[in-house]
Amino acid sequence: MEKRLRIAVLLVLGAAAVSACGTVAEQPKAAPGSNKTLDLLTEIQGLRTELQQLRNQVEINQRGLEAQQSRQRELYDDLDVRLRAQERKAATRQPAGAPPPPATSLDAAAAELADPAVIQDEYDKAFELLRGSQYAAAIKAFRTFLVNHPRSPLAANAHYWVAESHYVTQDFAQARKEFESFVVSYPQSEKVPDAMLKIGYSHFELGDAEKGRSVLSSIITKYPDSRVAKSAESRLQKAAR
Questions:
Q1: Is 177 exposed, middle or buried (0-12, 13-18, 19+ CB in 10 A)?
Q2: What is the pTM of this model?
Q3: Per-residue confidence band for 9, with pLDDT thresholds at 50, 70 and 90
Q4: Rounded alpha-carbon distances, angstroms, from residue 198 to 143, 166, 228, 231
Q5: Count of other CB atoms within 10 angstroms of residue 101
Q6: Closest alpha carbon to 204 in 174, 239, 169
Q7: Do 195 and 183 contact (CB within 8 A), yes or no?
Q8: How far is 34 from 21, CA to CA, in rounded Å?
Q9: What is the C-alpha to C-alpha distance for residues 197 and 213, in angstroms, rounded to an integer?
Q10: pLDDT for 196-237, tens place per residue?
Q11: What is the pLDDT of residue 182?
Q12: Reduced to 3 states, what is the DSSP secondary structure of residue 170?
């Protein structure tokens, strides 16, 4: 009996030892793969978290950009409305000044009898070209307007924008001529100070600093404390450096 019990105990211990050896032998094989898988899952989860954070940031930035663009459009539309209102207001108050050039044909004379709304629309279309930076087309459109409607209250503005278009495209010689012609033709226009300023600037751009200083100095004397006077002073200070 005792012998049988001793044999049973030995068999149990032997089986346990074999099982333990098998478990120990298997663990080194499973552990490396298990650790690599865990590390990979952890890395993937981290990348997913980072990606979500980036998506959130992109969405925030996109919303901010859309809001900024909306504000810019509102400001642009408001400026456009005020500019048009100012243009029309100035046109209704525009003094005759020097007599505008007479109509050169029966067609031009007949055009003066056109509906004021039609005349305004023609002017607005030319002005749209200017706002769109289509300067060559704007010059042509404004010149056509001046031929068709030389006595229109909007003629002075049209002439001014012809000169301004030449200036913006750096055709300073032609710009100076147009601005000088504008000042002579419409001496009472509210745009005369700005035209004189551009005449002075054009002289500097054309290399005639003496005439440029003379024109800008006359602006300071004639329109003291005005915006154009401050611009003239700034340009003279720059030229003196």
A1: middle
A2: 0.57
A3: very low
A4: 20, 11, 10, 10
A5: 13
A6: 239
A7: yes
A8: 20
A9: 11
A10: 999 999 999 999 999 999 999 999 999 998 999 999 999 999
A11: 97
A12: coil
Structure tokens at 2: 């005792």
Tokens representing residue 182 in the block: 């504008």
How many angstroms separate the Cα of 224 from the Cα of each of 90, 94, 123, 237? 22, 23, 33, 16
CA–CA dist 141, 159 (Å, integer): 11
List CB contacts of 175: < 8 A, sequence separation 6 or more: 163, 164, 166, 167, 198, 202
Alpha-carbon span 38 to 58, nearest angstrom: 30
- Give the ranges where the chain is alpha helix by DSSP (H): 2-93, 106-111, 116-131, 135-148, 155-168, 172-185, 192-205, 209-222, 227-240
Alpha-carbon gap, residue 73 to 140, rounded angstroms: 29
Tens of pLDDT, residues 94-143 = 444 444 444 444 444 444 556 788 999 999 999 999 999 999 999 999 99
The vertex-181 CA angle with 195 and 118, nearest 5°, equals 85
In the numeric block, which tokens belong to residue 241? 């450096």
